[in-house]
Amino acid sequence: MSADPINIIVGADLYGVLIVDGLRKGAVGQPIAQNSVLGWVISGPIPPSKVESHITSVASSEQPPLRVSAHHCLNLSLDQELRKFWEVEELPHKTHLNPEDEQCEEHFRRTHSRCPDGRYMVRLPFRAGPPIEIGRSRGVAEHHLKGLARRLDAHPEQKREYSEFLRDYETLGHMIEVPASDDADEQRVYIPHHAVMRESSATSHLRVVFNASCATSNGSSLNDHLLVGPKLQPDLSVIILRWRLFKYVYTADMTKMYRQIRVDPRDVTYQRILWRERPTDPLREYILLTVTYGTAAAPYLALRVLDQLVNDEGQAFPLAVLILQKGKYIDETLFGAHRLEDLRIARDQLIALLRKGGFELRKWASNNSELLSDIDPANHGLACNKILKTDESLKILGVSWNPALDIFQFQTATDAPAPQTKRSILSAIAKLFDPLGWVTPVTITAKILMQRLWRLKFEWDDTLPHDILREWKPIYNQLSALNELHLPRWTGQESDSDRCELHGFADASNVAYAAAVYLRVISKSGRTTISLLMGKSKVAPVKTLSVPRGLPESMHSDNGTTFVGADKELVKAYRAAVNDPNFLNAIASDNVQWHFLPPSAPHFGGLWEAGVRSVKYHLRRVLKNHTLTFEELTTLLCRIEACLNSRPLAPLSDTLDDYEVLTPGHFLIGSALTVNPEPSLLNVNENRLSRWQIIRHITERFWRLWQTEYVSTLQQRVKWRRLQAPVKIGQLVLLRNATLPP
């Protein structure tokens, strides 16, 4: 079945005329099918996570699956991507393994092995299994292959490259052809594949990508059953910054990195593909024998194997170990040294260590031609030619680097007329890759304009007003001017430099804030070199204060009679409304879990019960024989609550002149619960006070009693059995002043 163009849009006023007898319903929350004079019409709710393509399969064991597809296109994903446009990039930080990451790590340690030639063999890290609960996938793979054949027939050159890619895959022993099997006991997964064009690649413009996220007949995919594993690659910006410190540098890629790692024969049945070069050829079935890019666990397995290689063989290659630990990003390595001899030694160690695991390096490049003279020219790739041309550059982790001039460059294509829609403006800005913020002065102006378009709520493809286009044109012209901008790669730092200084600058305004860090190097001869290391920027938030007030995931309370009674009423209401789809959708999205403490066991809620006890104890002492109205008691309790929620928890910042502290009130209203100072009433006779002044008087007495007890708990004096750090200059402390009112 092929899609036809839309000829007419039918309005809701004709809906009743078009429908005929025939209505098919699925489960609650699924679409329904209504028969009409035009055919079956599908309508109903669609889960947000499945808006791109929804497939319902009706299959039997004799016939291939019948698929009915409904496509609904939204701009939600683009809106969500735009939200990230003005977010500050997170700096590297230490991550902690979650249970799934720990499971994946333990699985690798337990199941990996070495082949006789030194290569590693791994098993696929399934969440549960094998076997796994996955549907039939051969029909889906055949359907995708037919669509791929039609696209390749329209582009003969791509078809030739595609066939050569898979022939090379088979020639290298990375996949083998197998006969079609009807063994019902053997679980098989067929992975669709397609072409991805990479115009910037120095070796091959076409790459075959395997789509292990494609859904099978039961809606799950192979990737749904695989663990992703923890993030092992270091931060890209850190690698580039470290690479800039060396006078002489190398860069190289690992040849077919994923495909040097074999998959255990027990798991290769989950990596089957279908292929034929010509429509007249019989359909052939292949098994992929190596780690396959496109599977969820492939990046983790590849990097984890390199880490394991370091653990197994790295003792004899200390310089190579340092490179693989701090200068590796996926399959690309960047390393350097201050002396040519030291760099050659590190290079030879790296080559030797990687060969122990079956990995080879290619696409060598360097800022010094002598460093390439003793490398096989076949492994130079395009880099060997480009080092002699000052007008060409290489892509190093997405950043353009000219090895002959040893400079970073920016390449922007702005020959076309300036974009005039919100979508085209975002596209023009997103083409500029600047991971270290070197052109922040240009990108921040673009971010400010993009935020303005966001606030004005223009549609993505509407032509923008003239005043905004006039503001955008100078920014667009600045993008083209970036082609003339270059940044020295080397920061000038040497092993015998006299002095190195880091200088950081930051500034903020009502529309944005930014920071920049420079390195100032003073050589032994007195020569000074200043280099921009990194810049960061962010536009001012649309909402100056954003306090999340969502529903809690779980709630805990004591076993009070009122709570238990309310719970019983809710259970009755739930049973009465369990068949209402609106009610089911509401509780599915809320999903609040209520937990009762055991009866007569308030100590289970020690944290909040301690706060309740503190309030009750001091409140009883200050109220004494006072009789308050409901409004007066409510006011008093609110003021007491403010007293408790104004206690300091931690400094808001590390700035020496910032005396603000974080309090529980910040989590409630975004700031401390403070009021204007009022004169104390403690020394005034109660007979002379009004009702409002009595409330203030009681509050002050409560504050005096409570703060005396609370402050004492902050500086408990215990036995001097272990050293404790004394108060330091510049440290924020709490001063005790009995004369200050709450």
UniProtKB/TrEMBL annotation:
GO annotation (BP), single: DNA integration
Organism domain of life: Eukaryota
Pfam families found in the cross-reference section: DUF5641, Peptidase_A17
Cellular component aspect of the GO annotation: DNA polymerase complex
GO molecular function, one term: nucleic acid binding
Integrase catalytic domain boundaries: 484-672
InterPro entries: DNA/RNA_pol_sf, DUF5641, Integrase_cat-core, Retrotrans_Pao, RNaseH-like_sf, RNaseH_sf
Name this polypeptide is given: Uncharacterized protein LOC112451990
